[in-house]
Amino acid sequence: MIRVAVVDDQTLVRQGIRSLLALSDEVDVVGEGDDGESALALAAGGGLDVLLLDLRMPRRDGLWALGAMRERGLAVPVLVLVLTTFDDDELVLAALLAGARGYLLKDVTLEHLLSAVRTLADGGTALEPALTDRLLRAAAAARPAAPAGLLAPEPLTPRELDVLRLVAAGWSNKEIAAALHLAPGTVKNHVTAVLLKLGVRDRTRAVLRALELGLLGGEVFRRAASVP
Q1: Which positions ≥6 away from 43 have C-beta within 8 Å?
Q2: 172 DSSP assignment
Q3: Phi-psi region for residue 112, left (φ > 0), alpha (ψ -120 to 50) or beta?
Q4: What does each C-alpha distance from 31 to 49, 86, 99, 183 come to in angstroms?
Q5: CB–CB of 123/173 below 8 Å?
Q6: Residue 21 and residue 48 in contact, taking contact as beta carbons nearer than 8 Å
Q7: Which of 5, 26, 62, 149 is placed for a possible disulfide with 31 were both Cys, Cβ 3.0 to 4.6 Å?
Q8: Is the CB of residue 138 less than 8 Å from the CB of residue 93?
Q9: How far is the C-alpha of 164 from the C-alpha of 160, rounded, in Å?
Q10: Sequence-distant (≥ 6) Cβ neighbours of residue 103 within 8 angstroms
Q11: Which of the pair, 216 or 83, is modelled with greater confidence?
Q12: CA dihedral defined by 102, 190, 176, 29, rounded to 10 degrees?
């Protein structure tokens, strides 16, 4: 069972999400909260795998919670999936940079939400295609100009690009290994090499960095039936 908590200041939304998740035999909803402080308490309490987190909340918001979780070393054992709306582009970008492992829109279907929860629990990322272009524009606007003469990242090998493309599509290491006919340990090594070459510390930042560099096209966000 994947242990999930839901944090949203809107009671109806929070309870609705909880009720829908309870329909799945894969998910155990172990808690809920209505602001960043309750999110931090849930993460610090242990026994939690995935935290569904709203960003705009009174008192302490979701971004504050992500920062507090990182300071306390909770960002790795508890995987954060942001639930947001279309007008939160800059906040979502900040949340991804603060350690969130994915984001979805609040009008997501139950099937898509459960898929995203499973993906995070299995080591993948869940990135919402509809917001990608807008987030990239926000990232480009916020990113300072590179110093003259700055060296480009070390080129990725063809296999590393294959792995990166599937990481960007939200695939877990296990799924990538099966698709590319590789051992899970080999996939893990490729992911580590990608992170090192791109100069980032997690998969989400690797995707954002690769998109900035033009290494990936928009099609990588659609989980195609065929793989390389």
Answers
A1: 51, 65, 69, 74, 78
A2: -
A3: alpha
A4: 11, 26, 21, 36
A5: yes
A6: no
A7: 5
A8: yes
A9: 6
A10: 81, 82, 83, 84, 92, 95, 96, 126, 127, 128, 131
A11: 83
A12: -40
Backbone angles phi, psi at 87, to 5 degrees: -90, 20
**Which region among 40-54, 57-71, 133-147, 154-168 has the lowest average model confidence (pLDDT)?**
133-147
C-beta separation of 127 from 207 below 8 A: yes
C-beta separation of 6 from 54 below 8 A:
no
In this structure, the chain runs to a length of: 228
Residue 199 has pLDDT above 60, yes or no: yes
Instruction: Provide the edge-to-edge strand list for the sheet that holds 79-84.
Output: 27-33, 2-7, 50-53, 79-84, 102-105, 126-127
Q: By three-state DSSP, how is residue 193 classified?
A: helix
Q: Tell me the one-letter amino acid at 174.
A: K
- Separation in Å, CA 70 to CA 94, 111, 172, 200: 13, 29, 22, 16
d(C-alpha 126, C-alpha 204), whole Å? 9
Task: Work out the pLDDT band at 113, boundaries 50, 70, 90.
Answer: very high
d(CA 52, CA 39): 9
Which residue type, as a one-letter code, is found at position 159? R
Task: Give me the residues paired with residue 60 across strands.
Answer: none
Single pTM value for the model: 0.71
Quickly count: other Cβ atoms within 10 Å of residue 223's Cβ.
14
